[in-house]
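User: Some background: our group keeps a shared notebook of sequences we're curious about, and every so often someone picks one and asks for a predicted structure to add to the entry. Today it's my turn. The entry only has the sequence so far, pasted here. Could you supply the structure so I can complete it?
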Amino acid sequence: MVGIIDYNAGNITSVERSLKKLGIEYVMSKKPEDLEKCSHLIFPGDGDDAYAMQELNNLGFADFIKRKVSEGVYLLGICVGSQIIFSYSDEGNTNCLNIIEGNIKHLSSLVPDIQKKGLKVPHMGWNNLEFMNGNCPLFNGINPDCDFYFVHSYIICPKDSSVIKAVADYGTKIPSVIQKGNVFACQFHPEKSGEPGLKLLENFCRL
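Assistant: Of course. Here's the predicted structure to add to the notebook entry:
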């Protein structure tokens, strides 16, 4: 069973709609105990890292997510959910879940002359991926030339670059898909990325 973590910061409706279209059974809840028996967890998110961590702690999801990952449950973080699985975010000076070592930095701090390059912050819109560091099961049946939909101002900076499975080019190489064991993360929104995004979600849910 797939569980959707509802912590008042996620893009829940689009994720639900995608799973329904794929015919995948799921349960969504604001209560960790309702997701206890799930083999897969989807951890969506929009907005602010500091607020997201506050809600995770208030609802008891922070410890729950870390425990379930240690038990081997598959986790997919999306957008903000992809960021706060790391150690620390510059957004709100936020201590995050520290499931994977690394920091979250503002796009402009990594590309200081970003506006001179004609690029806007946030990075918003369609971008394709460059696969790297070996095979990732999320990409099964997906062409690397496919575009995915991004909306973000902050960038994942893993301590170990080998966990980066795909990057997008936006003034710098933006880590866009992460895998470390049973933990996966997408900086973009697969649930808003048409057929390639649906295929990615299906690949995750069928692991």
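Suggested note for the entry: Residues 143 and 196 are 8 Å apart (CA to CA). The first helix runs from residue 12 to 22.
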